[in-house]
Design a protein that fits this description.
Blueprint (H helix, E strand, L loop, with lengths): L1 H20 L6 E7 L5 E2 L4 E10 L2 E2 L3 E9 L5 E7 L3 E7 L4 E11 L2 E11 L14 H12 L7 E4 L8 E9 L6 E9 L5 E6 L12 H5 L3 E5 L10 H9 L17 H19 L2 E11 L1 H12 L5 E5 L25 H4 L8 H6 L4 H5 L7 E4 L10 H10 L4 E3 L11 H14 L5
Parallel strand pairs: 2-9, 13-14, 13-15, 15-16, 16-17, 17-18
Antiparallel strand pairs: 1-3, 3-4, 3-7, 5-6, 5-8, 8-9, 10-11, 11-12, 12-14
Helix pairs in contact: 2-5
Length: 437
Amino acid sequence: MKMRKLILPLLCLLVALPQYAQIRGNSIVVTVEPDHQDWHYRVGETAKFTVEVRKSGTLVNNVSVEYAAGPEMYQDVKKTVTLKDGTLKLQGKMATPGFYRVDVKAFVGGKEYRGACAAAFSPEQLKPSTVMPADFKSFWENAIKEARYTDLDPTKRLLPERCTKDVNVYEVSFHSNRWGSRIYGILCEPVKEGKYPALLRVPGAGVRPYAGDVWTAAQGVITLEVGIHGVPVTMEQKVYDNLAAGALNCYWNYGMDNRDMSYYKRVVTGCIRALDYIEQYTAWNGKEMGVTGSSQGGFLTLAVAGLDKRITCYAPVHAAMCDHTNSLKNKACGWPHYFYYNEAVKKMKNPDENPQVVTSRYYDGVNFARLITDQQKGWFSFGYCDDVVPPTTTWSTYNIVTGPKEISPYQATWHFWFQEQWDEWENWLLKQLGVRK
């Protein structure tokens, strides 16, 4: 009887847990659909949009909506209307290359629901505004040279609980640009003896632990996933939460008025030193070497590929930190939108003299992309609805690359991945690394 009393609550708990895990999506859905399936238009054409608010698949009557429309980040039409039958027709055009964005908020049952669409107007003609400093390349060559004066002094600790029959998993660390300043990461190596291609995975913005890329390693690739903040990547989550709210809060702004003091100088050199670690301390085959990351990691992907010709393939996804100065021309700029809200810089007669503007050019993905060569293959992917990393900036960055490249936009994504996008990304990398046909 006692055993029965103990088992019944446990069974109830086991039944309840899957129910919580299965919560997915909303009954209320707001869609903004363009009249071109690929969301593409030529400059001067008119894009027509159909807005629908549905509940359980059927249109909602007498629903209140707010909408904004116009060039992304600079929408000039803002209205509130009531949709009698749950639908609305809108249209827009652009006289220059860019993205015309429609954002819709519907209010149902006291809650807000969002939908959006950003139509591309001749995006292949977009050009970045950022200027490449004359000493950009030499600045980074010297930064890497100086970083290498400090020995890597690597550490390596097996994580048996993460290992599989095919992959050994380690937490590793090595010096970045000076003694005591370390990069930590998760190294995954195939168990079977041999030489392998390698993949460096660089992180999106934030402060978090890392699990490592065990799956790709199981396909026959050495993978190294790094953190950038100089702390171990296997601690409890609360440690990272405390750092994100405290010492590392808005770290992307640190030192952005001096190119030598920028937080990202140490980060970029640390990523290059991660390649040094792979070359010197793993069973890399000396041939295929890839780098990939999303958001901030997309920027770091461009930086690593631009600065280091050991990279044979690179895949930036939703690449942030591109074309910072575009907002000084009232055009969409990349995260973290350094000058979008900075009225003081915008009002300057010559913003080019501002230390932050000058510094930003040394940490702009566009300028790293300009250094990518014909021996490096690239795959770019992003979403047209992304309001963190505007497609204006990712398209213009793609356009500036002169080497072999592919572009695969997933128009309906915001700042997240679709499963199909993830699958395409994995397949492309594995093909470039020579482990999949």
